Amino acid sequence: MSSPTVVLVPGACHGAWWYAPVVEALTARGHRALAVTLPGLCERADELDGTTNLASHVADLVARLRDLDGDLVLVGHSYGGMVVAGVADALPGRVVGMATVDGFAPEDGDSCWASVNDAMRAWYLDGAARTGVLVDPMPQFDARATGHPLASLVQRIPLTGAHRDVPVKHYALAAHPAWTPVSPFGPVADRLRADPTWTVHDLPTTHNVLADGPDVLVGLVGEVLADVAAR
Prior knowledge:
Elements (H helix, E strand, L loop, with lengths): L4 E5 L10 H9 L3 E4 L18 H13 L5 E6 L2 H11 L4 E7 L10 H4 L2 H11 L5 E2 L12 E2 H5 L13 E9 L9 H8 L4 E9 L8 H15 L2
Parallel strand pairs: 1-2, 1-3, 3-4, 4-7, 7-8
Antiparallel strand pairs: 5-6
Helix pairs in contact: 2-3
């Protein structure tokens, strides 16, 4: 049986470019890796319209992956965790592994807005003040980052529960949140530590887990792939 394709979903304001060193490293190790940009962001900014939200991000990736042969391992950073959960829920049986990296691991009806702390909500509101539609990137973000659709950050995600059936699920919490005094994702990690179906890691990084290179994230993906292969 062929190895699964690793699908890498970036966080808010970011595109496939953020994962370029990870794709390169995984490919060099013989894995198939695909990094995606969501509609309305970065090189797909011209696709932004009144319907661009969390549901459309999930639907876009589901449509793309339906045409891809073989099993899938989904990796979502930050906001990408919402999308990964939605895709796993929509493609039961196709997703054999899932990793959320310092991000959201939602259940039915959750939203980014409801899941973060006041510091993050302030960014959503202040960042959207200029256009009312897009949340501007934080000043420390890469110059390639673009505004992120506000609708995707407040929309609740509908999940049937099929996402829980993914056999291998990993969560990684960054030790240093950097952009807020307290990470909004600590409670997520605490919840999943109590769930025996999840493996939780503590990463010695900031939220920008690639700031010092791809090795930490590549190592995490390698652990997920090893767990998948062992089943």
